[in-house]
């Protein structure tokens, strides 16, 4: 068997390491390379420029459409990058398999691989494989036991109140259910209630400029 | 804030092979209940039980360790703070009895020098499956100068007695002066009755 070239990796690393060119740089990127951060950069740039056009009704109309388009772009880019990550993982595992085939190790008989003493084989596809360190376990257990101790103290104290050993204090001002049931006013307006990152970035500084 | 609801705090530790019933022994003592399903303890857990001895409210903080080898580095770090250690084996499991010397070595290595020790042969309700004669337990306890009980968490035999005896032994060694107490107890010596075990 002849050796296929294994070179693509390096190009990829170079591309990722390209220096930053400011928010405007995102606009000159190839669509395939676009990240969600780039979309946010674009939102910021466009928002700023549109804001400079003033606040006539036509501009406002346009703003909402542009925000919507940018949100669509954000969704597509996010989806794309997740797919790319999955493909990358698959490629890596295939590459490893290929490597094993080339070096002549029969992968099916992994149990025979001589690892030397104090080594063990872990099946990476096993959802129950060991994957936390001793220190992590130690920390979790300490945290659990600390919380348990606090709970016991609280329960003990509660029992004291129940038995009337400690007189209950006056409740400072009855609790009022406020805000929870107030309905939102009208459709999404340009105010503090922006929901998406895009909107935040798009309308960044709008308060100061208009 | 709640007032302090006890006079003294004793920290106890349960050790021994996996499956001998450490958690069950503790559960019987703390909640007076028993559960047959075997769930391996993960690392370390604890329970609290307040008892009254010689007119003192003593809060027992009892640490329950995992017997499995893979948790040893975690569990041995809890030996240091213990004032009393209960070493448990299973009378129906010869291996758990053979390992007692290993556990005693662990105590020597990791616990305080003056820690109060006690040996428990658990599951004494299962006499038909017994492989460790009671005499062997008594003998090894005598050799190491420690107390011994045969217990059953399931049948509730000697569980409370074992814990109270261990607590009494610790209390006897505890200096009577209490820095925060209002009345200083001068009843030194405190004639403790060395209880002998009787089970099954």
Automatic annotation (TrEMBL), chain A:
InterPro entries xref list: DZIP_RILPL, RH1, RH2, RILP_dimer
Main location: other
Coiled coil: 70-104, 137-164
Keyword Transport assigned: yes
Domain RH1, residue spans: 22-104
Domain of life, source organism: Eukaryota
Record-linked CDD domains: RILP-like
Region annotation Disordered: where it falls in the sequence: 1-33, 164-188
Keyword Membrane tagged: no
Entries under Gene3D superfamilies matching the protein: 1.20.58.1770, 6.10.230.10
Keywords: Cell projection, Cilium, Coiled coil, Cytoplasm, Cytoskeleton, Protein transport, Transport
Ranges of Basic and acidic residues composition bias in the record: 168-179
Location of the protein in the cell: Cell projection, Cilium; Cytoplasm, Cytoskeleton, Microtubule organizing center, Centrosome; Cytoplasm, Cytosol
Transmembrane segments annotated in the record for this chain: none
RH2 domain sequence ranges: 129-201
Name listed for the protein in its UniProt record: RILP-like protein 2
Organism: Echinops telfairi
Automatic annotation (TrEMBL), chain B:
Keyword flag Protein transport: no
Region (Disordered): 178-200
Superkingdom of the organism of origin: Eukaryota
Entry annotated with the keyword Iron-sulfur: no
Catalytically driven reaction(s): GTP + H2O = GDP + phosphate + H(+)
Membrane topology: Lipid-anchor
Compartments in which it is found: Membrane
SUPFAM superfamilies given in the database record: P-loop containing nucleoside triphosphate hydrolases
Xref: Pfam families: Ras (PF00071)
Matching PANTHER family: LD44762P
Family the entry assigns: Belongs to the small GTPase superfamily. Rab family.
Protein name: small monomeric GTPase
